[in-house]
């Protein structure tokens, strides 16, 4: 009986995933028929209306209150609404990546996407065969970063966590791969795949602001959390430079990609990269970014769950 219930439960979950994926993909397909600006504005409007009605909104508001105890309820709700607008735009931007990303390193006229740190990209391009690690957080459209690197002939293999829904995950993976090159799902064997890229003198990109239950103890916005030590371990193994990068949404449906100069990871008394201190440094960088644009980060994520 237990086996029957287990099997039935798995089949029902699979059916739920399939139906949800059909709905999501169907909506994105319909939006694809609209001009990008109209589709994005519509998605944001819907998200701002219905986002506050879902359970994750309460989690977002609670996280915001703990991160910003000095802010009133109205300001907290305004940030949460901005977050829903940002997340809706990000979801729809997947189907418009080819139309939205218009940055050209050789163009004199600015487009929808601008890059701050062009000189850094150009410098790294000249370091042939030297591995680099870029890190970012879930801010703005972070998917633009590896696309921008590719425009400077800096092919980057990105580590990503696929959605729980396998059908949605396949759709997003195919969309991302066609636009941004190498992708490594965050699962068993991911560290080895990234290590091979660095072994070959390649570049990798890592998101560092997600919950990782087996991670090292750190703090983020003053609260305890666990952080994935992978980036610090790879940096220690390959002694490669680390570059912070992020995407910032601008008014009028524009974007600014900001690549900062390399950071120096903390080392212990023996001169070896300190894993916990490095993970904390990454958190501090991301927190600085989030404080600048709190409505562009995903506050409904269970980042502080230990």
From TrEMBL:
It comes from Nitratireductor aquibiodomus. Keywords: Acyltransferase, Cell inner membrane, Cell membrane, Membrane, Transferase. InterPro entries: LipA_acyltrans. PANTHER family: LIPID A BIOSYNTHESIS LAUROYL ACYLTRANSFERASE, LIPID A BIOSYNTHESIS LAUROYLTRANSFERASE. One of its GO terms (molecular function) is acyltransferase activity. This is KDO2-lipid IV(A) lauroyltransferase. GO terms for cellular component: plasma membrane. It is found in: Cell inner membrane. One of its GO terms (biological process) is glycolipid biosynthetic process. It comes from the Bacteria.
